[in-house]
User: What shape does this take?
Amino acid sequence: MKRALILIISCLPLIGFAQQRKGTGVIYGTVVSQNQQPGKHITLYAEPLGVSRQYPSTISNDDGHYRLENLPWGTYKVYAEDDEAGYLREVDDDNQSQPSVKISRNYPQAEFRVVLPAKAGVVQIQLTNRRTGAVIPWMWLTVTTSTDPLHSDNHSCESSELTLVPPDRNLILHITAKGFREWDESSGKGKLIFVPSGTRLTMAVQLDPIR
Assistant: This one.
């Protein structure tokens, strides 16, 4: 391990020279939890500001170190989004207030420390047909923050899947499925839920078939 590390460090000036010629750079640093522990094996994304493109990603190592390479010069937000680890990029993030990092011709390598958000809450839906009691395998789920109803997470998924939601806040939930009416408790204004960080809310939901 020490020999490999020395090799990587010794190559940095050459890498930087090549990146200057190609107009790309590197963002690197550490990932820590809110109690300052290393964020191990966390998926991170670099979002270029003002550019519509696919975001590069990487995974932090055992020490919480990460490295995003071959990034075009510009300003980036670096954030964690990792369902398995329980980290969710919240749909109502204020991009203007989030810290950013810039790489350029003069500064092709930039160090940036990523602080993980609070772990997401988890919602588990036990979805059944009210008339027959049979399990409904697929559902359409909409989650909206009560303070920002214009931003919502809409997706179709297996009813057995666990859904990550923004923690420690009031959320509005809508549940329906093909061939069924919307859940009577969410029909209209939606079902209000609150899931503390790192906890799971299990809900037994019955839908009425349309026919």
About this structure: The first strand starts at residue 24 and ends at 32. Helices lie at 2-22. The domain at 121-207 is CATH 2.60.40 (Immunoglobulin-like).
